[in-house]
Amino acid sequence: MSEQTGGRPAGVPSSGRVSAGAQWPAHVAIIMDGNGRWAQQRGLPRSKGHEAGFQRARDIIRACGEWGIPYLTLYAFSTENWRRPAGEVSFLMGLLQRAIREELQELLENNVRLRILGRLQDLPAALARGLKEAEQATAGNTGLHLNMAINYGGRAEIVDAARAIAAEVREGRLSPEEIDETCLARHLYTAGQPDPELIIRPSGEMRLSNFLLWQAAYAEFYVTDVLWPDFTREHLLQALEQFTHRQRRFGGI
Ligand code: IPE
Ligand code: IPE
Ligand code: MG
């Protein structure tokens, strides 16, 4: 796994809110939650909340690129979200399809590398194709690594890794003794990436909801009551600032 750490490069607002010399996380992961409640509070259909949430995602991706955050993961649709009413699921699939069509150019212009975390094969075929193509089109970029978690489940990811490892053992390319934490991490969707150091959950829920179960082992957790459609780069700065004050011990003293 990469030893890359986050910096605080030139271009970050010198507002004084960020401690001098403090390290920012190399990998920030966000559970984009609260779209429905945001819409409900305004007497709007939930779909309006998802649209507003999509705009926030655009801003946050752009901010992370500008600030030199190396890795950003956004949780957009979980393996459990299929339990929602069919109309909401199909609206979300349509929104993702539109997003990838409309935003690909922006990702290319901003030098963003896209990776999809999740079971693409179970998504509508046109969406899966669009996401694959966008991954390929941005593969040569050198800026922000953006992971979009779509049809993502932490348990599903570990199951997929276990299957891939089992297949390699069966084919004689790997022995059971060689299976260790590094090997398992290499078979996750996030292979080659640093673990998230900061996981942000807007809208106040204090749970992971099946997000990055393996990778979250030592992530710092930041929960805010702000709903995702209200979550601006200022809120992100607050989370980053708080991260710099956390004492991380990793089991030591
Ligand atoms: C997050 O917002 C978006 C997805 C899970 C797709 P929600 O739709 O979960 O919003 P709340 O939690 O109902 O407010
Ligand atoms: C988590 O939010 C999934 C995403 C944000 C994509 P949920 O709204 O699905 O989580 P629960 O159901 O409240 O745990
Ligand atoms: Mg929710």
Question: What does this entry look like structurally?
Answer:
- The protein is built from seven helices and six strands; from the N terminus they run E-H-H-E-H-E-H-E-H-H-E-E-H.
- It has 253 residues and is α/β, with parallel strands linked by helices.
- The protein has a domain at 27-152 and 195-243: 3-Layer(aba) Sandwich (Undecaprenyl pyrophosphate synthetase).
- A six-stranded parallel β-sheet has the order 3-4-2-1-5-6, with helices on both faces.
- Helix 2 runs parallel beside helix 3.
- It is globular, with a radius of gyration of 18 Å.
- The two termini are 24 Å apart.
- Residues 31-33, 75-78, 81, 205, 207, 209 line the site of one 3-methylbut-3-enyl trihydrogen diphosphate (IPE).
Can you summarize the main beta sheet?
A: 6 strands, parallel
Can you list the ligands bound to this structure?
3-methylbut-3-enyl trihydrogen diphosphate, magnesium ion
- Intertermini distance: 24 Å
Kindly state the number of beta strands: 6
How are the strands of the biggest sheet laid out side by side? 3-4-2-1-5-6
Average of the residue pLDDT scores: 94
CATH topology of the domain at 27-152 and 195-243: Undecaprenyl pyrophosphate synthetase
Coarse structural class: alpha/beta
Principal-axis shape equals globular
Radius of gyration: 18 Å
CATH class of the domain at 27-152 and 195-243 equals Alpha Beta
Strand content: 5-15%
